[in-house]
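In the laboratory, one determines a bound structure by crystallizing the protein with its ligand and collecting diffraction data. In a computational setting the workflow is compressed into a single prediction: the sequence and the ligand go in, and a structural description comes out. We illustrate the idea with pyridoxine-5'-phosphate.
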Amino acid sequence: MATMRILSVNIDHIATLRQARRENFPDPVQAAAFVEAGGADGITVHLRQDQRHINERDVQLLRATIKTELTVEMAIVPKMVRFVQQVKPDQVTLVPEVITEVTTTSGIDVIKERARIKRVINELKKTGIRICIFIEPEPAQIGAAAEIGAQVVELNTDRYSKEIKRREFHLDRLLRAADVATHNGLIVHVGHGLDYLNVVPILERNIAEGFSIGFAIVARGFFVGLKEAVAEMRGLIRGISSATKRSDSIQGDRVEGNKN
Ligand code: PXP
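The predicted complex, in structure-token form:
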């Protein structure tokens, strides 16, 4: 892949710590400066509807202060659409949101939610925001995402990261999904549950251009400092060249999404 790989660091976890004591520190806005100093290409936050960690003030201040790209993960609801249209992040990543979940675990069902997502995409595109959809690495989902106008897909690596014994199976699934996405004109990102070890096979297989990683970096930051923890991950992402070229086996096999 000729394009440079990028790392966007999810800093929700800094806000989670702040909210554990209902304090005004540690401040994710301050953390963003250390993340950028460590060489990240972007900052990602998930503005949940209940604002349980990141809140509107955080997003507004991040927009005003960071020098790299801002990505806001959000649910497909009108309130969020209105908010991001004002703040204008560089990218919005559409995610499913379940109020009882500890963290996002599955990708959005683009086939089922096609009409709602399309309306949101059309609205957000008026403001020039790049649209990413967080999805399962399934060809039908990818086809549907391309069809309704997404520019980027973030392939969910949650199961890859958890099901260690099925690592090869999940890598093949991710690799095939990435090929389908590329052939549909989409940029491929990966995220969820990635750490300093399990990211390596993904890099070696050249699966993605963008990496959205949070928990592992923030957790390591407690011991080595946030800037250093980011620099280490950045070093891996930029440093490991692909061992396997992405297969071209499915060229011409554009996946048409389910036209419900
Ligand atoms: N991508 C998405 C869509 C997410 O919801 C999250 C978690 O907030 C991440 C990436 C980052 O996952 P992790 O914190 O496990 O690295």
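Residues 10, 12, 46, 73, 93, 95, 103-104, 134, 154, 191-194, 212-216 surround pyridoxine-5'-phosphate (CB under 6 Å). Keep in mind that any predicted model is a hypothesis to be tested, not a measurement.
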